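Re: beginner question about structure tokens

> Can someone show what the tokenized structure looks like for a real chain? I only ever see the sequence side.

Sure, here's an example I had lying around. Input first:
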Amino acid sequence: MRETHAGRLLGCLVVFCALGGCGDDDDEGLSEAQLHGVGAACDANDDCHVGERELTCLPFKGGYCGVEGCQSSADCPAGSACVAHDDGKKYCFLVCTDKVQCNPTRPADIESNCSSNIEFVDDERGKKACVPPS
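And the corresponding structure tokens:
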């Protein structure tokens, strides 16, 4: 039976919690964006529905759960930011400080990179975002 990306995401969160990563304080350590699956690999929009916020499976290699068409980071779940991508569209991408934060729900062959070489819509200098492979 083929495992879905949403199933892998749930499995990763269960393992994370079992290892002590989840606390009683509103899932301590995870941003709203991570709790809603931003940055996860996907095959279809249904893979990106985690929690109450609906996300879209964006058209990147391996898919990328996020929001398309943001106008500012205020349109994005907390822990993600609105970026202007090379394809001319704007997306909510997970923010990061290093690559490991981008890939807890992505297989090694489609890892995202934590990059500062991206244009943030709100001119958020010094920030980095998890950029999926094209």
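Each token stands for a local structural state, so reading them left to right follows the chain. The helical segments are 5-18, 32-35.
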